[in-house]
Write a structure and sequence with these properties.
- The protein is mainly β.
- Helix content is 13%, strand content 33%.
- The strands form two sheets. Strands 3, 4, 5, 6, 9, 10 and 11 form a seven-stranded mixed beta sheet that branches. Strands 2-1-7-8-12 form a five-stranded antiparallel beta sheet, with no helix packed on it.
- The protein has one domain: Alpha-Beta Complex (hypothetical protein yedk fold), CATH 3.90.1680.10.
- Strand 3 and strand 4 form a beta hairpin.
- The longest helix is centred in the N-terminal third of the chain and has 11 residues.
- The relative contact order is 0.19.
Length: 229
């Protein structure tokens, strides 16, 4: 599962992101957040007619055919069934995205202790997503997005049974290719080439409150007991 993450992409990271993804990116984000929560606006990289660029989406997928916005935001999409369910299949085939993130949060059971998970080398995570555009009755539009999740790898199993699907750089070109609509090839991209090198540390329960949003949320909190990884 991925229910909260950090998306604070500074200028040097934006330049690197533009180079690695060969995308045309605006220099400003709509929002930067250390505590992205469902229904917040997030940045994602998409592709149309071989042009890659950053768009801004409501986190919580609203399939175009729905008559109303779901009461519970569809923030996560299971990789195991994405190619089967009508809510997701069309977007999986035609509207794929990459959500760059600094890291994400997970809560260890049973005490629901928050942890921050991030790349060991300090780089950005490239989380796989799908998007759609929903039209309201008044003619207004809402671009929306969901993050694809998979079974937890060995590292994450101590925290949760699910985790975001994190794409390797070698998978990016295929994932963002709008001409690729072959389900067999697409399903192969749902299997990571290798487990990402991640680290984590315990953080303050201040992250539980959505209105809290500053750099202190991702800092290591000093506690006597930690999970052993």
């Amino acid at each position: 599962m991925c229910g909260r993450f950090a998306q604070v992409i500074k200028h040097d990271q934006l330049v690197l992101l533009q180079k690695e993804l060969r995308a045309s990116l605006s220099s400003e984000q709509a929002e930067i957040s250390f505590n992205v929560a469902p229904t917040h606006v997030i940045m994602a990289i998409v592709s149309k007619a071989n042009l890659r660029y950053n768009g801004f989406f409501r986190w919580g997928l609203i399939p175009a055919w729905m008559k109303s916005i779901p009461k519970t935001p569809l923030i996560n999409v299971r990789s195991e069934s994405i190619h089967e369910k009508p809510s997701f299949k069309a977007s999986f085939i035609r509207r794929r995205a990459i959500i760059p993130a600094n890291g994400f949060y997970e809560w260890a059971s049973p005490q629901k202790i928050p942890y921050y998970i991030y790349p060991a080398d300090g780089s950005l995570l490239y989380m796989a997503g799908i998007y759609d555009v929903w039209e309201a009755g008044d003619g207004s539009y809402i671009p929306s997005i969901g993050i694809i999740t998979k079974a937890a790898d060995k590292f994450m199993q101590n925290l949760h049974q699910r985790m975001p699907l994190i794409l390797a750089k070698q998978q990016i070109d295929l994932w963002l290719d709008p001409g690729l609509q072959d389900l067999d090839i697409l399903k192969s991209l749902l299997v990571p080439l290798q487990d990402p090198a991640l680290e984590c540390h315990r953080v303050s329960t201040a992250v539980n409150k959505v209105t809290n949003n500053d750099e202190s949320l991702i800092r290591k909190a000093d506690f006597q007991e930690e999970l052993i990884f």
